[in-house]
């Protein structure tokens, strides 16, 4: 009998290498895609929570949220600062839309973050910006008025994605 490897037919010596060359790249794309999507989702949830918390603080006229580094400015500037700090992300742009300052009136707090894929493989499939918005009702009248303002829109469309209350 032959001196070849047992279990292998004639001409099948490189089949395992070819199979691995096909499967490994697909497996790596799948793994790195899950990593990119997981990081994107983590940032989206963090930004959503930060906007919701800052909006709640604005509704009860506690614009700095008890955070000393966000105090001393206007209520709008304090809400912008509080949202950025609570998000834990650098490069977040925040905008406040406050049509009136009476109790029961609504205001909107919007944030936008330019997302980036860590591996680059999923960049065509993920949105370029994470946009989060919350609309709250003023429960306490601010002593100094909450005004419309904040950062410039990173998408350069004048915050049109942020709905006025």
Mind explaining what this structure looks like?
The protein is an alpha+beta fold and 165 residues long. It has one domain (16-150). It has helices spanning 15-59, 75-87, and strands at residues 93-97, 106-114, 129-137, 149-150. A hairpin with an 8-residue loop joins strand 1 and strand 2 (106-114). Helix 1 (15-59) runs antiparallel to helix 2. The longest helix is centred in the first third of the chain and has 45 residues, at 15-59. It is rod-shaped. The termini are far apart. The mean pLDDT is 87.
Low-confidence stretches: none
Strand order of the largest sheet: 3-2-1-4
SSE pattern, N- to C-terminal: HHEEEE
Strand content: 15-25%
* Number of alpha- plus pi-helical segments: 2
What's the domain count?
1
Mind describing the biggest β-sheet? 4 strands, antiparallel
- Give the distance, in angstroms, between the N- and C-terminal Cα atoms: 85 Å
Instruction: Give me the count of strands.
Output: 4
Which structural class fits the helix and strand makeup?
alpha+beta
**Overall helicity:** 25-40%
Quick one: overall form? rod-shaped
Q: Report the mean per-residue pLDDT as an integer.
A: 87
Radius of gyration: 25 Å
Describe this structure in a few short sentences.
The chain has 165 residues and is α+β, with helices and mostly antiparallel strands. The chain is 35% helix and 15% strand.
């Amino acid at each position: 009998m032959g001196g070849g490897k047992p279990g292998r037919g004639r001409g099948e010596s490189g089949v395992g290498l070819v199979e691995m060359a096909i499967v490994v790249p697909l497996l790596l794309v799948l793994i790195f895609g899950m990593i990119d999507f997981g990081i994107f989702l983590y940032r989206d949830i963090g930004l959503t929570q930060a906007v919701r918390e800052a909006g709640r603080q604005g509704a009860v006229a506690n614009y700095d949220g008890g955070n000393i580094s966000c105090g001393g400015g206007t209520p709008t500037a304090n809400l912008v600062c509080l949202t950025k700090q609570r998000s834990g992300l650098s490069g977040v742009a925040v905008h406040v839309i406050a049509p009136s300052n009476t109790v029961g009136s609504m205001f909107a707090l919007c944030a936008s973050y330019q997302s980036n894929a860590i591996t680059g493989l999923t960049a065509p499939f993920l949105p370029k910006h994470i946009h989060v918005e919350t609309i709250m009702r003023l429960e306490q009248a601010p002593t100094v008025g909450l005004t419309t303002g904040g950062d410039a829109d990173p998408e350069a469309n004048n915050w049109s994605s942020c709905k006025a209350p």
